[in-house]
Amino acid sequence: LGIYAVYVVIVIFTEYFKKKRKVTTADISKRNSVIRVDHAIHEIVKETARVVNGTARADEPPRRDSTFKRLSIAVASVVMGHDNEIFVEDPENDVDDFVVLHNTVYHGEHARSRAATLRHSIPPSHGIFSDLLHFFAPEKVTSTFGKIKAYIFWPIVTIFKLTIPKSDARWSKPLAIIHAVLGPQCLLFTTHLSLFAPIAGGPGLYAYVPIISLAIIVFILCVTSVNEEPRFYEVTYSLAGFIMSIGWIYCISTEVVEVVEMLGVVSGIDQAVLGLTIIAWANEVGDLVADTSVARQGFPRMAMAAAIGGPLFNQLIGFGLPFTIAKLKGDTVPISLSGVNVIM
Fold first, then answer.
1. Roughly what angle, to the nearest 10 degrees, separates helices 233-267 and 280-296?
2. 138: helix, coil or strand?
3. CA–centroid distance for 133 within its chain
4. CA 15 to CA 312: how far, in whole Å?
């Protein structure tokens, strides 16, 4: 536990001093970016108009002038009737990346985050029931194999959509009520806590959770609107989706462990060998998905830190906490150092 605490402190102080040294450079880059942005937008508009009007061939490369010498400019979203956002990336320096929105310039991590969200355009609403049907409909793909796969996995994906809130989806009041009803019960099911009785001789937690669901439903009905997205919608749904995803990962991982243990008993393979291979891989699938998702959203340094810190957290906290508790209780924890355990 002490080693992990030292590790966290070192990382925090390193980042603090690194950012402190970059303050001057970042301020200069911001001023330069704001000065260049008007010229950049002007050139983008001219280039886009030239292509739309048919004066440029499809295979003709974009014109390069002084504006394009250091900057790689990409129109991230140009939608008539909606806000136009332009992402400007400097390939030589991450500090010079910026996004233009409502005459505001976003830099650094905020720019990459904004640029990532631009790729997900939310379609206009066509009514409550139409939106629900569209939300739960199978994914639309063009290839035959993709269509077959979409329909095979549709029941599983639907269960996930019914229980896991998505912050990047359009706000839907009926869907929020569905999540309020199914989410808490599903969380108890995935964590194997449904039958846990807080009062001796009383019912399990499944009997108390409907009270929480009812309170959430009343709050949604009284505070939120059908057509207007709540103020803290993205933050609340991101947190709730994260918790429900952890619950499902825990449930699936538990089942995988049970299946692998059964295969080990049937095949006679040592459990330590199974732990080093199949169980270890299954244990890191969640981290693989999460870290990849974080990197694709424009935070590669966060993903790299999580890839290193995740296993370290499992090792130091996973061993340190139970052994510390056992030591505080005065218990002795025997460890067998023989055979495969020595290699591990």
1. 150
2. coil
3. 24
4. 19
Q: How far apart are CA 219 and CA 215, in angstroms?
A: 6
Helix, strand, or coil here: 87?
A: strand
State the average pLDDT over residues 315-340: 84
The distance in angstroms from the start CA to the end CA of the chain is: 21
CA Rg value for the chain = 26
- Report pLDDT digits (tens) over 11-68: 889 888 888 777 656 555 555 555 455 555 556 656 555 555 555 444 444 444 444 3
Q: Which candidate, 23, 108, 119, 37, places its Cα nearest to that of 71?
A: 37
CB proximity list for 26: less than 8 A, separation 6 or greater: 95, 107, 108
**String of DSSP letters for 46-63:** HHHHHHHTT-S-TTPPPP
Please report the sign of the dihedral spanned by the C-alpha atoms of residue 294, residue 296, residue 297, residue 303.
positive
For residue 278, the one-letter residue type is I
Angle between helices 173-190 and 233-267 (to 10 degrees): 30
At which residue do the structure tokens 């995988």 appear? Answer: 256
Confidence of residue 127 (pLDDT cuts 50, 70, 90): low
CA distances to 26, 230, 238 from 289, in Å = 32, 29, 16
Contact 182, 244 (CB under 8 A): no
